[in-house]
Amino acid sequence: MQSKLIRLLLLALLLPLQGAAQTFVNLTPRPKTMTVASGSVTLPTDFKISSDGLDDEMKAEINRFAADFNAATGYTVSAVENDAEALMKVTLATRDDLREDGYTISSTDGVSIQITAKTA
Fold first, then answer.
1. Cα separation of 4 and 84, whole Å?
2. Domain spans, the chain
3. Are the C-beta atoms of 41 and 111 separated by less than 8 Å?
4. Where does residue 69 fall: left (phi above 0), alpha (psi -120 to 50 degrees), or beta otherwise?
5. Which residues contact 23 (CB under 8 A, 6 or more apart)?
6. Residue closest to 65 by CA, chosen among 47, 83, 42
7. pTM for the whole structure
8. Three-state DSSP class for 68?
9. Closest CA to 46 of 95, 88, 93, 2
10. Strand pairing partners for 106?
């Protein structure tokens, strides 16, 4: 579950939001409710992904993602810890009121996407 949440967060940050005309969004498990909006983000060719308070398995997933992203794009993405200036920040947020494997995803203007789950 941990690596699924990290990968979902990173993909959500790096992919443009789907247009409202599209009804299919590839999320597993499929959300009970969803509002689809349009938007985009342009990434610099050199940026950092910072982690804070994550276990070794989650940090390893961020490192794998950065390596795969670099290989696919030719960009220079580095995984770091506790860097307030990093373009992307990954932290752990849990909520007891969610069902098992339940999650919420919310996005705001700018590059701010939060994924919260019942467990890590």
1. 24
2. 2-117
3. yes
4. alpha
5. 36
6. 47
7. 0.66
8. helix
9. 88
10. 114
CA distances (Å), origin 117, targets 67, 107, 111 = 25, 15, 20
As its CATH architecture, domain 2-117 has 2-Layer Sandwich (3.30)
Positive or negative torsion for Cα 106, 108, 113, 118: negative
Contacts 24+ apart (CB under 8 A), 39-43: 39/107, 40/16, 41/13, 41/14, 41/16, 41/111, 43/14, 43/75, 43/87
Helices (H) and strands (E) in the chain, counts: 2, 5
Could you report the per-residue pLDDT of 31-85, keeping only the tens digit for each? 788 888 787 878 899 999 998 888 899 899 999 999 999 999 999 999 999 998 8
> pLDDT band at 1, cuts 50/70/90?
low
